[in-house]
Amino acid sequence: MTVRVKVCGTTSVHDAVLSAGAGADALGFIFAPVSKRLVSAQVAREAGLSVGPSVARIGVFLEQGLDEVLRTAEAARVSAVQLHGPLSSLYVRQVAAYYPVLRVLRPADLAAEAGMWRDEPGVTLMLDAPEPGGGVPLDWAALREVFPRGAWLAGGLGPANVAAAMQALSPAGVDAVSRLEARPGVKDPALVRDFVQAARSS
């Protein structure tokens, strides 16, 4: 199975085109107000349209109301939604009725939630660090026995360590942001290219 590669924290048309040109399968647009990489729905829409339909456009949300999520996702023309934070199963399913969902869990959440979403239509799990976007990798060795089959992996990934992470856990997709930047919200072309190539060759 070919791993999917997502470049998150996209804040401009320029960086969207850069990441798509490097071979990314998906772009992440962060709509959580607390993020240093917050982007407007209008900019996300323009960036998404600039790369064409073959690249997935994923809206990233943190504990935001259902109406806000759906309204923003529609305005931004995203193709999927990524949900962070402590959320009810009903809420996740309500979003999944409209968009494919990447449900983000921390290692501490796995025991309680991983089984709940294993066969849920429209919901794919992603494992991330306790502080998303912080650049700190997870302890992959400690997760070997509990990492859900078919899940995505995030948390401190970059060109130098994505191959090791994939070897340890065999994720269906990998997601990176902070280790691909020249500064918060601005991508480094060489790091993006090297990350995609490292993931593809692993």
Helix segment tally:
8
Spatial ordering of strands, largest sheet: 1-2-3-4-5-6-7-8
- Estimate percent helicity: 25-40%
- What distance separates the N and C termini? 11 Å
- What's the helix-strand series? EHEHEHEHEHEHEHEEEH
Structural class: alpha/beta
What do the pLDDT scores average to?
Answer: 94
Say which CATH homologous superfamily is assigned: Aldolase class I
Looking at the overall shape, the CATH architecture is Alpha-Beta Barrel
Number of DSSP E strands = 10
Low-confidence segments, given as residue ranges, are: none
Number of domains: 1
Summarize the structure.
Helices cover 36% and strands 21% of the residues.
List the helices and strands and how they pair.
Blueprint: E1 4-7, H1 13-22, E2 26-30, H2 41-51, E3 56-62, H3 66-76, E4 80-84, H4 89-96, E5 101-105, H5 110-117, E6 123-127, H6 140-143, E7 152-153, H7 162-169, E8 173-176, E9 181-183, E10 186-187, H8 189-200
Parallel strand pairs: 1-2, 1-8, 2-3, 3-4, 4-5, 5-6, 6-7, 7-8
Antiparallel strand pairs: 9-10
Helix pairs in contact: 1-2, 1-8, 2-3
What does this structure look like?
- The protein has 202 residues and is α/β, with parallel strands linked by helices.
- It has a single domain (4-200), classed as Aldolase class I (TIM Barrel, Alpha-Beta Barrel).
- It has helices at 13-22, 41-51, 66-76, 89-96, 110-117, 140-143, 162-169, 189-200, and strands at residues 4-7, 26-30, 56-62, 80-84, 101-105, 123-127, 152-153, 173-176, 181-183, 186-187.
- The strands form 2 sheets. Strands 1-2-3-4-5-6-7-8 form an 8-stranded parallel β-barrel, surrounded by 6 helices. Strands 9-10 form a two-stranded antiparallel ribbon.
- The model has no long low-confidence stretch (mean pLDDT 94).
- It comes from Deinococcus aquaticus.
- Belongs to the TrpF family.
- This is N-(5'-phosphoribosyl)anthranilate isomerase.
